[in-house]
Specification:
The complex is a heterodimer of chains A (382) and B (153). Chain A is an alpha/beta fold and 382 residues long. Chain A is built from 13 helices and 13 strands. Chain A is globular, with a radius of gyration of 19 Å. The chains are: A alpha/beta (382), B mainly beta (153).
Chain lengths: 382, 153
């Protein structure tokens, strides 16, 4: 299974504006992102034969978006049910479709409209499934689940609020140089510590910024990519892990995440290690997601993330630049597909004021808790 | 299908006043039925004895038939949060409230999310020993198990 995605590349990227409340439909935003991604790589609707997205049932589907931008006959259409946990599978699935000949050019998108806000569930009157055990106790939404993880990490490894704050402050500092980010005012550690509690140990600045917007990327073969305008960004390998049926309550060790299992798989498949990574787009639905997965991927030992960030090792001039766009915390929450956009921009050398000098490899993670995945992009084919 | 607040005669005027109500299904119904009788019962394989949460019709390890069996109701706080703002309906008068993952004594890793009562939130710790007691779920139709520190902090 090693190097299973060799031969696939991302050639185009597009997105809608990111705003707090757009008033637009998911179809409108997704179509805009898809059109922009195709224009970016000099292709047209006539070139596209595959479309895929992931969603939690809150999005215009692949066939609709393809139709809306003028695709007449879609040969491969796949709608995946899932959130951050499934981004890697979706992108890798598009690559697999290309490599197996099911499609030649695939658009991958994610769109979020104002009807989707995961941080609160004030309209939830009844809950079924596993939620029926948690909801009646006032425990139902992701900030609560991952605050629960964070507390256990604090108990086992002595991580602190200041450690989480170091991540929030660093990411915001990066977003200052990103005109597309929704939150660009610098914050200090004091600002972080003074921000209001949400679900203790999480404060406001531990939580991502939920917004409206869409991102699309175009995946095709490396062969075809060679004829397109931009430097192709190659898929070097991907890995996922899913345990405990996705149960955040039953996951066996809340001080770590899916990445405990994904990381060795990914490094084995790519032949790479943390020291080889120039840009790390770490899925950051919450600061703690960065902390847990950063440790799991082996950038530092358990309990050392705060020191790592404070020492400047996670920014320009350090060991690896973490979320140069500001991440989901500050650029905005497009369910992790904006991390792929940023990785491509960086590896093309087109990230402007926030360009990571000489970036050749990018790790992109997705998911939190018991399930998720990660992939590596590179400027050179595997 | 979501039941709206207006259709429930027992619901108060504020739609945020009630916590989410459980929707039992064919597999989970015995859990709620036991609570209504003042028992905490969890799903267990009748063949190999593995406790299963969330419940399953057949055991995930040996595919044996499952049943609900009473547990002692004692356990340990594995982790917990203090909820300071209403992000989920209910318990508005109880903010800040504590929700824990309680690891039951019957099996390592067998956990239930539950409110912790009878203790200052600042006193709750991972490792705290707790015991189940029963409370009416606001709304009037269900009983839930909440947990209280064994030694009374």
């Amino acid at each position: 299974m090693s190097r299973s995605l060799e031969g696939a590349a991302v050639v185009g990227i597009g997105r809608s504006p990111f705003v707090r409340s757009s008033g637009r439909t998911t179809l409108s935003m997704a179509a805009q992102a898809a059109r922009e991604a195709l224009a970016d790589c000099g292709l047209t609707a006539a070139d596209v034969d595959g479309f895929t997205c992931y969603s939690t049932g809150d999005s215009a589907g692949p066939s609709q978006v393809a139709h809306a931008i003028g695709v007449d006959d879609l040969g491969w259409s796949l709608s995946v049910l899932g959130g951050g946990n499934i981004v890697t599978s979706t992108v890798a699935g598009a690559a697999a479709a290309v490599l197996s000949g099911q499609a030649e050019v695939v658009v991958v998108y994610r769109v979020l409209g104002s009807q989707t806000r995961y941080g609160r569930a004030l309209e939830r009157i009844e809950v079924d499934g596993e939620g029926q055990f948690a909801g009646p106790h006032g425990y139902l939404v992701p900030p609560q689940w991952f605050a629960m993880f964070c507390r256990r990490h604090q108990y086992e490894y002595g991580s602190t609020a200041a450690d989480l704050g170091a991540i929030a402050v660093q990411e915001r500092d990066h977003a200052v140089r990103n005109p597309h980010a929704v939150a660009r005012s610098p914050i200090t550690l004091d600002d972080y510590l003074n921000s209001r509690w949400i679900s203790e140990p999480f404060r406001l600045f531990d939580c991502c910024y939920e917004i409206d917007g869409a991102v699309a990327i175009v995946v095709t073969s490396a062969e075809r990519a060679a004829d397109l305008p931009h430097r192709p960004v190659h898929l070097l390998g991907a890995a996922d892990s899913n345990r405990f049926g996705g149960s955040v309550d039953q996951w066996d060790d809340l001080s770590c995440m899916y990445s405990r299992d994904t990381a060795p798989r990914l490094w084995s498949r790519t032949g790479l290690q943390p020291a080889d990574i120039d840009v790390a787009c770490m899925y950051d639905c919450f600061t703690f997601t960065v902390m847990a997965t950063f440790e799991d991927f082996g950038f530092c030992a358990k309990g050392e993330v705060g020191d790592y960030f404070r020492a400047g090792r996670a920014t320009y001039g350090g060991d690896v630049v973490v979320n140069p766009h500001g991440g989901l915390l500050s650029e905005g929450y497009i369910h992790g597909l904006n991390h792929h956009y940023e990785a491509v921009l960086q590896l093309r050398g087109e990230a402007g004021d926030r360009q990571v000098s000489g970036a050749e490899t990018a790790l992109v993670t997705s998911g939190a808790g018991p399930f998720g995945g990660a992939l590596v992009y590179g400027t050179a084919a595997a | 299908m979501t039941t709206t607040h207006e259709e429930r005669p027992s619901v108060g005027a504020d739609p945020l006043s009630l916590p989410p109500q459980p929707v039992p299904d064919a597999v989970t119904a015995p859990f709620w039925a036991a609570l209504a009788e003042g028992r905490l019962a969890m799903c267990r394989c009748g063949d190999c004895g593995l406790w299963l949460q969330p419940p399953l019709e057949r055991c995930r390890r040996c595919a044996g038939p499952t049943r609900f069996a009473d547990v002692a109701g004692t356990g340990t706080v594995y982790s917990f949060i203090v909820q300071h703002r209403a992000t989920v309906p209910g318990y508005l008068d109880d903010l800040p409230y504590v929700v824990a993952l309680v690891e039951l004594d019957e099996q390592a890793g067998l956990r239930l999310p539950a409110r912790i009562v009878g203790v200052d939130p600042a006193q709750v710790r991972c490792g705290l020993r707790v015991r189940a007691e029963f409370a009416d779920l606001p709304g009037g139709d269900f009983t839930v198990a909440v947990f209280r520190p064994v030694d009374g902090l």
